[in-house]
Design goal:
208 residues
Protein backbone atom coordinates (compact mmCIF):
# COMPACT_ATOMS: atom_id res chain seq x y z
CA UNK A 1 0.00 0.00 0.00
CA UNK A 2 1.27 3.44 -1.00
CA UNK A 3 0.57 6.24 1.51
CA UNK A 4 0.74 9.81 0.21
CA UNK A 5 0.54 12.90 2.40
CA UNK A 6 -0.70 16.13 0.82
CA UNK A 7 -0.28 19.24 2.98
CA UNK A 8 -0.38 23.00 2.47
CA UNK A 9 -1.92 26.13 3.90
CA UNK A 10 -5.64 26.74 4.29
CA UNK A 11 -7.04 27.60 0.88
CA UNK A 12 -3.88 26.55 -0.98
CA UNK A 13 -5.75 24.17 -3.29
CA UNK A 14 -5.05 20.81 -1.65
CA UNK A 15 -8.59 19.54 -2.14
CA UNK A 16 -8.52 20.61 -5.78
CA UNK A 17 -5.28 18.71 -6.34
CA UNK A 18 -6.75 15.59 -4.74
CA UNK A 19 -9.99 15.94 -6.73
CA UNK A 20 -8.12 16.20 -10.03
CA UNK A 21 -5.97 13.16 -9.17
CA UNK A 22 -9.10 11.13 -8.38
CA UNK A 23 -10.59 12.05 -11.76
CA UNK A 24 -7.77 10.13 -13.47
CA UNK A 25 -7.24 7.07 -11.27
CA UNK A 26 -9.42 4.00 -10.59
CA UNK A 27 -11.75 4.91 -7.71
CA UNK A 28 -11.54 1.49 -6.07
CA UNK A 29 -7.75 1.69 -5.86
CA UNK A 30 -7.53 4.96 -3.90
CA UNK A 31 -8.87 6.00 -0.48
CA UNK A 32 -8.83 9.52 0.97
CA UNK A 33 -8.33 10.18 4.68
CA UNK A 34 -8.97 13.90 5.34
CA UNK A 35 -7.05 15.25 8.30
CA UNK A 36 -10.19 17.26 9.17
CA UNK A 37 -12.03 14.04 10.03
CA UNK A 38 -9.62 13.52 12.92
CA UNK A 39 -10.18 16.77 14.81
CA UNK A 40 -10.65 15.95 18.46
CA UNK A 41 -14.22 15.60 19.64
CA UNK A 42 -15.12 18.62 21.79
CA UNK A 43 -18.68 17.75 22.71
CA UNK A 44 -17.80 18.19 26.39
CA UNK A 45 -17.28 21.94 25.85
CA UNK A 46 -19.95 24.66 25.48
CA UNK A 47 -20.76 25.61 21.87
CA UNK A 48 -19.41 29.14 22.33
CA UNK A 49 -16.05 27.74 23.42
CA UNK A 50 -16.01 25.22 20.57
CA UNK A 51 -16.58 27.92 17.96
CA UNK A 52 -13.52 29.80 19.20
CA UNK A 53 -11.19 26.81 18.99
CA UNK A 54 -7.88 26.97 17.14
CA UNK A 55 -8.25 24.41 14.34
CA UNK A 56 -4.85 25.29 12.86
CA UNK A 57 -2.75 24.02 15.79
CA UNK A 58 -1.35 20.46 15.67
CA UNK A 59 -2.84 19.71 19.10
CA UNK A 60 -6.34 19.99 17.62
CA UNK A 61 -5.80 16.72 15.73
CA UNK A 62 -6.01 13.22 17.20
CA UNK A 63 -2.86 12.02 15.45
CA UNK A 64 -2.75 8.75 17.34
CA UNK A 65 -6.10 7.68 15.88
CA UNK A 66 -5.12 8.73 12.35
CA UNK A 67 -1.84 6.80 12.56
CA UNK A 68 -3.64 3.79 14.06
CA UNK A 69 -6.13 3.80 11.19
CA UNK A 70 -3.31 3.92 8.63
CA UNK A 71 -1.63 0.96 10.31
CA UNK A 72 -4.90 -0.96 10.27
CA UNK A 73 -5.40 -0.29 6.56
CA UNK A 74 -1.82 -1.26 5.82
CA UNK A 75 -2.35 -4.56 7.62
CA UNK A 76 -5.41 -5.29 5.47
CA UNK A 77 -8.12 -4.29 7.95
CA UNK A 78 -11.03 -1.92 7.34
CA UNK A 79 -11.52 1.19 9.51
CA UNK A 80 -14.35 3.49 10.57
CA UNK A 81 -13.32 7.03 9.63
CA UNK A 82 -14.78 9.72 11.90
CA UNK A 83 -17.09 12.44 10.59
CA UNK A 84 -16.44 15.94 11.95
CA UNK A 85 -18.88 18.86 11.80
CA UNK A 86 -17.57 22.42 11.59
CA UNK A 87 -21.02 23.71 12.49
CA UNK A 88 -21.10 21.99 15.90
CA UNK A 89 -17.32 21.36 16.24
CA UNK A 90 -18.00 17.78 17.32
CA UNK A 91 -17.78 14.29 15.84
CA UNK A 92 -20.92 12.69 14.53
CA UNK A 93 -22.13 9.35 15.85
CA UNK A 94 -21.91 7.99 12.30
CA UNK A 95 -18.63 6.97 10.68
CA UNK A 96 -17.44 6.22 7.14
CA UNK A 97 -16.23 2.66 6.46
CA UNK A 98 -12.92 2.60 4.56
CA UNK A 99 -11.50 -0.57 3.09
CA UNK A 100 -7.81 -1.30 2.43
CA UNK A 101 -6.70 -0.33 -1.06
CA UNK A 102 -3.56 0.18 -3.11
CA UNK A 103 -3.19 3.94 -2.43
CA UNK A 104 -4.21 6.04 0.56
CA UNK A 105 -4.01 9.84 0.38
CA UNK A 106 -3.93 11.73 3.69
CA UNK A 107 -4.84 15.37 3.03
CA UNK A 108 -4.78 18.35 5.39
CA UNK A 109 -2.98 21.53 6.42
CA UNK A 110 -0.92 19.89 9.17
CA UNK A 111 -0.19 16.49 7.61
CA UNK A 112 3.58 17.11 7.36
CA UNK A 113 3.84 18.63 10.84
CA UNK A 114 3.40 15.31 12.67
CA UNK A 115 6.67 13.32 13.00
CA UNK A 116 4.75 10.10 13.71
CA UNK A 117 2.60 10.50 10.61
CA UNK A 118 5.54 11.51 8.40
CA UNK A 119 7.24 8.19 9.15
CA UNK A 120 4.31 6.39 7.52
CA UNK A 121 4.24 8.49 4.33
CA UNK A 122 5.84 7.06 1.21
CA UNK A 123 5.45 10.38 -0.62
CA UNK A 124 5.14 13.81 0.97
CA UNK A 125 3.57 16.64 -1.05
CA UNK A 126 3.19 20.33 -0.14
CA UNK A 127 0.69 22.42 -2.10
CA UNK A 128 1.84 26.05 -2.15
CA UNK A 129 -0.06 29.24 -2.98
CA UNK A 130 0.25 32.99 -2.41
CA UNK A 131 -1.18 34.27 0.87
CA UNK A 132 -3.64 36.59 -0.93
CA UNK A 133 -5.03 33.74 -3.01
CA UNK A 134 -5.41 31.55 0.07
CA UNK A 135 -7.22 34.30 1.97
CA UNK A 136 -9.74 34.79 -0.84
CA UNK A 137 -10.49 31.07 -0.90
CA UNK A 138 -10.79 30.94 2.91
CA UNK A 139 -13.29 33.83 2.93
CA UNK A 140 -15.45 32.24 0.22
CA UNK A 141 -15.33 28.77 1.80
CA UNK A 142 -16.03 29.82 5.39
CA UNK A 143 -18.95 32.03 4.40
CA UNK A 144 -20.59 29.50 2.08
CA UNK A 145 -19.75 26.17 3.76
CA UNK A 146 -19.37 27.10 7.43
CA UNK A 147 -21.87 29.93 7.82
CA UNK A 148 -19.39 32.51 9.11
CA UNK A 149 -19.57 36.28 8.53
CA UNK A 150 -16.82 38.17 6.70
CA UNK A 151 -15.79 39.88 9.94
CA UNK A 152 -15.61 36.54 11.76
CA UNK A 153 -13.52 35.01 8.98
CA UNK A 154 -11.08 37.94 8.98
CA UNK A 155 -10.83 37.90 12.78
CA UNK A 156 -10.05 34.17 12.74
CA UNK A 157 -7.52 34.63 9.94
CA UNK A 158 -5.57 37.26 11.88
CA UNK A 159 -5.89 35.51 15.23
CA UNK A 160 -5.13 31.88 14.33
CA UNK A 161 -4.90 31.02 10.62
CA UNK A 162 -2.03 33.37 9.69
CA UNK A 163 0.14 32.87 12.82
CA UNK A 164 -0.37 29.08 12.82
CA UNK A 165 0.53 28.95 9.14
CA UNK A 166 3.80 30.75 9.84
CA UNK A 167 4.56 28.67 12.94
CA UNK A 168 3.58 25.16 11.87
CA UNK A 169 2.44 24.80 8.26
CA UNK A 170 4.98 26.79 6.26
CA UNK A 171 7.96 25.23 8.13
CA UNK A 172 6.63 21.73 7.34
CA UNK A 173 7.31 22.44 3.64
CA UNK A 174 10.92 21.39 4.19
CA UNK A 175 9.79 17.79 4.73
CA UNK A 176 8.08 17.61 1.32
CA UNK A 177 9.41 15.42 -1.49
CA UNK A 178 7.38 17.44 -4.00
CA UNK A 179 6.18 21.07 -3.81
CA UNK A 180 3.23 22.06 -6.00
CA UNK A 181 3.16 25.83 -6.62
CA UNK A 182 -0.12 27.49 -7.71
CA UNK A 183 -2.22 24.77 -6.11
CA UNK A 184 -4.90 23.23 -8.30
CA UNK A 185 -3.87 25.37 -11.27
CA UNK A 186 -0.55 23.54 -11.65
CA UNK A 187 -1.66 20.98 -14.22
CA UNK A 188 1.87 19.74 -14.93
CA UNK A 189 2.57 18.90 -11.26
CA UNK A 190 -0.84 17.24 -10.88
CA UNK A 191 -0.18 15.20 -14.03
CA UNK A 192 3.19 14.05 -12.64
CA UNK A 193 1.57 13.03 -9.34
CA UNK A 194 -1.22 11.22 -11.17
CA UNK A 195 1.21 9.30 -13.38
CA UNK A 196 3.25 8.35 -10.31
CA UNK A 197 0.14 6.98 -8.59
CA UNK A 198 -1.02 5.12 -11.70
CA UNK A 199 2.42 3.57 -12.05
CA UNK A 200 2.34 2.40 -8.42
CA UNK A 201 -1.15 0.94 -8.87
CA UNK A 202 0.00 -0.87 -11.98
CA UNK A 203 3.08 -2.20 -10.19
CA UNK A 204 0.99 -3.54 -7.32
CA UNK A 205 -1.42 -5.24 -9.75
CA UNK A 206 1.43 -6.90 -11.62
CA UNK A 207 2.81 -8.38 -8.40
CA UNK A 208 -0.49 -9.93 -7.38
Amino acid sequence: MLIIGIAGGTGSGKSTVVKKILESVPQNDVAILPQDSYYRDNSDKPLEERLEMNFDHPDSIEWSLLVHHLKELKSGKSIEQPIYSYLTCTRADETIPVKPCKVVIVEGILVLSSPELRKMLDLKVFVDADADDRLIRVINRDIIERGRSVNKVMERYEKTVKPMHLQFIEPSKRFADIIVPQGGNNHIAIDILTRFILNCISTVKNTL
